[in-house]
Write a structure and sequence with these properties.
Layout: E1 6-9, H1 25-38, E2 42-46, H2 52-62, E3 69-75, H3 78-86, E4 91-97, H4 100-107, H5 111-127, E5 131-137, H6 144-156, E6 161-166, H7 173-184, E7 190-195, H8 202-212, E8 216-219, H9 233-243, H10 255-266, E9 283-284, H11 288-295, E10 315-316, H12 324-333, H13 340-355, H14 362-376, E11 383-391, E12 399-406, E13 409-416, H15 420-432, E14 438-446, E15 455-463, E16 466-474, H16 477-493
Parallel strand pairs: 1-2, 1-8, 2-3, 3-4, 4-5, 5-6, 6-7, 7-8, 9-10
Antiparallel strand pairs: 11-12, 12-13, 14-15, 15-16
The structure holds 3-methyl-2-oxobutanoic acid and zinc ion (ZN).
């Protein structure tokens, strides 16, 4: 049986130390619930002595009745530890620096003084009957003999877990492996590691530590944390499970949605090319890759890792080099039937969007096809747009003029609106003389991102009791809205 690795999540503590991130108590609670559903073993909920707000958040989270152990951070000082105890945490994470730099410049203390503080902090936690995790901060730049002495001391005092932090991300995998092997010679309790990402090595160093005998890892969702962040939860977990054959308790299908929640709550977006949860993690560009993936996903995706394992979706990106067969295959997969002529038109549309530098993903393709299929049934259409003119002047309301064919008859109208879309829709309503057509819902997706993204508008329109959904796709957001509105109007008044 592969050894189980415990996941210690520090999104709400070190992750919250990401420059620019400050989480309210409600947000911290929501993230804590998501982490619990994700099945992390330990949630480091905060640093209760750092502020009243953090004290309250940690206390709230500790009393949610979560399945995960809730931990609070404390310096190796009694008042900090008291705050953790008052916040009802299940595990106190106490720390003190052991590196010469920190001893001399940060604390102005001798090795003996630090040793005594470390041991008495753990003693104090244990005296209160609470489990204790101890961190010798900046461990990886500490003298190894001194580091061992401190670890032996706190272990003797009853520390349940000893964490070896790479506080400034100074390590590389071989060095981390050797250090953990060395520490394993004297540490008999659980070894935890906490790796920062200053050289982009956090995940690799964490995994090397596991190979050397660490059985717990500290990670943060989306790799959040001080400076370049901490080891990323998503990458560490999936690498452990798939590459290293180690088990965790993590419900991997929740990984993507947890990452998205943390993105929303912190306002820190992950890079598109971020592994596992980035927008491009399972996106394939046109050509050889798309072709291969259409036949068998494993051709251009890692063996053993599928998007659904982490709750994400595969995206096929069709670019300007796409062939008619690629589009045809994709449409078939999407269950959309088109004629040869329509297929040619859709392929040309995809290519021309590609020429404009736009990426066309599955959703775009479906929208382009829907749009084309909608426009193909012209004979059934009651209302058709012949012309649209928009007048935008700084400091004035936008004005739209439309020229419309209503049942074959030309009608014109000019209206203003709060924005260009509103003005255009008001003018259409005016021209067709159906002022009681209501726009109940409006949803705009710029699926592929960027200011020149393909606009995909979905609306709900109603007239009296009649309600319909409609969609419009165009490079321009006003035109996408107008197309959607006209599609809806035609359905309502046919
Ligand atoms: O980076 C670090 O050393 C820490 C400790 C508090 C574990 O965050
Ligand atoms: Zn840290």
């Amino acid at each position: 049986m592969p050894r189980k690795i415990k996941i210690f999540d520090t999104t709400l503590r070190d992750g919250e130390q990401t420059p620019g991130v400050a989480l309210t108590a409600d947000k911290k609670t929501e993230i804590a619930r998501a982490l619990d559903e994700l099945k992390v073993d330990i949630i480091e909920a905060g640093f209760p002595a750092s502020s009243d707000g953090d004290f309250k958040s940690v206390k709230t989270i500790a009393n949610l009745g979560l399945d995960a152990t809730v931990c609070g951070l404390a310096r190796a000082l009694k008042p900090d530890i008291d705050k953790c105890i008052d916040a009802d945490v299940h595990l106190v994470h106490t720390f003190i620096s052991t590196s010469p730099q920190h001893l001399k410049y940060q604390m102005g203390k001798t090795e003996e003084e630090v040793y005594a503080m470390a041991v008495s902090a753990v003693d104090y936690v244990k005296d209160h009957g609470i489990d204790c995790l101890f961190s010798p901060m900046d461990a990886t730049r500490s003298n190894v003999d001194y580091l061992k002495k401190v670890c032996i001391g706190v272990q003797g005092a009853g520390a349940k877990i000893i964490n070896i932090p790479d506080t400034v991300g100074q390590m590389y995998p071989h060095a981390m492996y050797d250090l953990i092997k060395e520490m394993r010679k004297v540490i008999t309790v659980d070894i935890d590691v906490h790796c920062h990402n200053d050289f982009g090595m956090a995940v690799a160093n964490t995994l090397a530590s596991v190979e050397a005998g660490a059985n717990q890892v500290q990670v943060a969702v989306n790799g959040l944390g001080e400076r370049a962040g901490n080891a990323d939860l998503e990458q560490v977990v999936m690498a452990l499970e798939i590459l290293y054959g180690r088990k965790t308790r993590i419900k991997t299908e929740n990984i993507y949605k947890t990452s998205k929640l943390v993105e929303r709550m912190t306002g820190i977006r992950v890079m598109p090319n971020f592994p596992i949860v980035g927008d491009n993690a399972f996106a394939h560009e046109s050509g050889i890759h798309t072709h291969g993936v259409l036949k068998k996903a494993e051709t251009f995706e890692p063996t053993g890792l599928t998007p659904d394992m982490v709750g994400a979706k595969r995206k096929l990106v069709l670019g300007k080099h796409v062939g008619i067969h690629g589009v045809e295959a994709k449409l078939k997969e999407l269950g959309i039937d088109v004629s040869k002529e329509q297929l040619k038109e859709i392929t040309n549309k995809v290519k021309s969007l590609g020429d404009l530098g736009k990426r066309v993903v599955e959703d775009d393709l479906a929208a382009i096809a829907d749009d084309l299929l909608g426009r193909d049934s012209k004979e059934k259409r009651f209302v058709e747009l012949a012309d649209l003119e928009l007048n935008l002047k700084f400091g004035r309301k936008p004005v739209a003029s439309v020229d419309i064919l209503v049942n074959g008859k030309r009608k014109k109208a000019t209206e203003e609106g709060v924005g260009p879309v509103d003005a255009a829709l008001n003018a259409i309503r005016g021209a067709i003389g159906e002022k009681d057509i209501r726009l109940d819902e409006y949803h705009l997706d710029a699926i592929t991102g960027g200011s020149n993204a393909l606009a995909d508008v979905t609306i709900r329109v109603s007239k009296g009791e009649k309600v319909t959904m409609a969609r419009g796709v165009h490079e321009d957001v006003v035109m996408a809205s107008v197309i959607a509105f006209l599609n809806g109007v035609n359905r309502l008044i046919k």
